[in-house]
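Mods, move this if it's the wrong board.
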Amino acid sequence: MKGYKAFDKNLKCRGMQYEIGKVYEMDETPIPCDRGFHFCKTIADCYGFYPMCEDTRICEVEATGDVATDDDVKYCTNRIMILAEVEKPREKSNVSESSSGYCNSGDCNSGNRNSGYCNSGNWNSGNRNSGDCNSGNWNSGNRNSGNRNSGYCNSGYCNSGDWNSGDCNSGNRNSGNWNSGDWNSGDWNSGDCNSGIFCTDKNPKIKLFDVDSDLTMRDWINSRARMIMNRCPYTYADFISAASMTDEEKKRHPEHKTIGGFVKVFVATTEDKQRWWDDLPEDDKAEIYKLPNFNAEKFEECVGVKIRRWQDD
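Not the wrong board. Structure tokens:
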């Protein structure tokens, strides 16, 4: 089996000196990450274990003994021959010859570790991205899962702002569409925190428990009650690097070989939320009870916890 092995600038690997043209062997059975001469099938995979710099030297090798692997990325053998050094290995790390970046499996990429096509950024699995860590298409910002975003961390489409789950927003954190303000769940708002349409109010009054109140959204945002509720367990997604992934996660997410990890969803269960509420200090619970129009049944329905004991003061 032929492959590639990375070394430091002195052609050493883990302190062992190697020479081109020589054969190295051992009597023991190879075990990945334990014993044996390790190598990869591609140059790009080698850069997952050695830095992508000029000091890293890569040689073509041939395993002529027993071969073992546990992830189809890193292999090891008990007999290896160092065939020849690869000239300019970074330039040869792409599967397609049309990419000018490094370690790309798609085509026409100028960035690094892209599995999509025509990306100029890094770690993209979508297509035609100029930003970084995008799984959608045509993004110029970073960490977008939607398409045509110039902002950051958008799951919607055509956003120039950041953290939007809606579409065509120039503001931030909107779940509605075409908003130029922030935190809007409705559409076409230039103000902030509006759930209606074509609103310009910068600080609208809000309902609590389906009843009008004198609190504004900013009052709620700055309140101790909101700070308490922010500690309630919630479901969220985060990028997990390959180094932190379990073997099972690597098997279920082969894209980690290209983008350096995967997006993991952390689910907050009803039991998690109930445990949080039950362990909450009584003075924190009292802060929630003091909210205008407090209604225990509606609180339980919205939050997902059972208030085991409640009495009107």
